[in-house]
Amino acid sequence: MKLTKHKLGELLDVTRGTSLSGEYFATQGDYMRLTCGNFDYQNNCFKSNTSKDNLYYIGNFNQEYLMEKDDIITPLTEQAVGLLGSTAWVPESGKYIQSQDVAKITPYEKLLDKKFCYYLISSKVVKQQLSAAAQQTKIRHTSPDKIKDCTVWIPSLEEQTKIGQFLYDIDSKITLNRQINDNLEAMARQLYDYWFVQFDFPDEKGKPYKSSGGKMVWNEKLKTSIPYNWQVLPLDKIGKFKNGINYTKGEEGNKLYKIVNVRNISSSSFFVDNSDLDVLSLNSQNGDNYLVNPSNILIARSGTPGATRLLRTNERNVIYCGFIICYALNDVTFKNYMFFTIKKLEQVTKSQSNGSILNNISQDILKRLWITLPPCGLNGKFNDSIMPLFTSIRKNQEEIEVLTKQRDELLPLLMNGQATVNYHLSAC
After folding, report:
1. Where are the beta strands (DSSP E) in 283-367?
2. Closest C-alpha among 116, 109, 102 to residue 160
3. What burial letters (b/e) apply to 267-306, b meaning 16+ CB within 10 Å?
4. In terms of domains, do 129 and 164 share one?
5. Are residues 272 and 364 in the same domain?
6. Confidence class of residue 353 from pLDDT cuts 50, 70 and 90?
7. 20 to 30 Å CA-CA from 377: which of 229, 287, 304, 394?
8. Which long-range contacts (CB under 8 A, 24 or more apart) does 375-383 make?
9. Distance between CA 327 and CA 339 in Å, rounded?
């Protein structure tokens, strides 16, 4: 496959967004600001920005900065290492305003296929050039001119179209799996809420307990009514808490471990992505004290305080860092129930944090939290209902990891001409 050398500026246009006055930032409105927080740089896609609550803009602005669906955007500020060169598709028209930290990429359609362009900008060769040319400040920046100055090698427009569509199809399947998992997770949360928050779990006749007149009793500890035969206990009576391992970079030992860090918890919602764990070499005398298994519940102390996750696989060499608390249950059959119960308390633990810069929570805070504990029989029925959802979520997540690995391995090969796409859109 023949490749031709170009500057990106010969193939596309790059435009910076507009400056928006902070006095018009709002918590609701018709238009939202696009920021660097809208880039999922690890998965190279768009994400909803949950880092701020004032993302709406209620002031006047030039309508040329109102984005259209499937516009290509890239960040101009590196708020996290690896962010420069990331790309995202704008998900809908007439909603998002392009701010000054975000650039719009417009390929010249007779020279550059749009989907191919999306992956070209995020390719290793472009990212390396942007990183090398970035202003060396505490927070690094790039510019439209620096993006356009990057050198690339591209195939014919026909080949670009095949490659772009092939990679787009992989990403579409990944996106579909994520959407399915979002729905499955929502169903799981709804089931827990219906059974254990509203107390409308199925009674002996299969009817919703509380709505059908099931006996409720007032609990002074919780200041609410609960089913009459349920226990109320503090978390430290149901399991044991332990902070994770503290280690230094470059530390060497006699055993390799995969370690769960706060970023692994922040980037997931139910199950930690085992494929994205850092690998450490530590002395087993130390590391083995922090092994975690799928029956344990992991709780973030900082970053996303109180965020609660499970391991997805049965790997035996996984440990957890010092910014994470491991909760080992006395009775592992209650793992699913306790997972959702603690997850329900995420906002509570955040509000009770010690107010430090990292907004940490502690074992002491968690130990003082009192919760309801249902009878074993009801817990067993909940496990039977929730496990098919968990199994599907795990399966979809595993497929996402496989597809992501394939895409990331194929991307440089397709971009440098070492692999091509045949008529049926399969790599060869």
Report:
1. 297-300, 308-311, 318-320, 324-329
2. 116
3. bbebbbbbebbeebebeeebbeebebeeebbbbbbbbbbb
4. no
5. yes
6. very low
7. 394
8. 375/229, 375/230, 376/333, 378/195, 378/201, 379/333, 379/334, 379/337, 380/333, 381/201, 381/202, 382/191, 382/192, 382/195, 382/196, 382/201, 382/336, 382/337, 383/333, 383/336, 383/337
9. 10
Name the strand (E) or helix (H) holding 148.
helix 144-148
In a domain, 217, yes or no: no
Find out whether 9 and 149 touch, Cβ atoms under 8 Å: yes
Low-confidence winner among 155-169, 337-351, 361-375 (lowest mean pLDDT): 337-351
Rounded-to-integer distance, Cα 88 and Cα 44, Å: 7
150 to each of 2, 11, 42, 121, 175, how far by Cα in Å? 20, 11, 22, 9, 29
Burial classification of residue 132, based on how many CB atoms lie within 10 Å of its CB (0-12 exposed, 13-18 middle, 19 or more buried): exposed
Q: Please list the residues that pair with 74 across neighbouring strands.
A: 103
pLDDT at 223: 94
Looking at residue 355, its pLDDT comes to 43
In a shared domain, residues 369 and 381: no
Is a pLDDT exceeding 50 seen at residue 356?
no
Which of 166, 42, 149, 69 minimizes the C-alpha distance to 113?
166
Tell me whether residue 215 is in a domain.
no
pLDDT digits (tens, 9 = 90+) for 295-351: 999 999 877 788 899 998 888 899 999 999 999 999 999 999 999 999 987 765 545
Is 343 part of any domain?
Answer: yes
pLDDT at 354 over 50: no
Q: Model confidence over 20-52: pLDDT tens digits?
A: 999 999 999 999 999 998 998 878 889 888 777
Return the axis-axis angle of helices 114-121 and 376-415, rounded to nearest 10°: 100
Phi-psi region of 359 (alpha: psi -120 to 50; beta: other; left: phi over 0): left
Which residue range is the domain that position 78 belongs to?
4-154
Give Cα separations from 314 to 240, 274, 324, 333 (angstroms): 20, 10, 19, 16
Backbone angles phi, psi at 238, to 5 degrees: -100, -25
Side-chain half-sphere exposure of 47, counting CA atoms within 13 A: 16
Report whether 270 contacts 393 (CB < 8 A): yes
Q: Which of 136-150, 220-234, 308-322, 357-371 has the lowest mean pLDDT?
A: 357-371
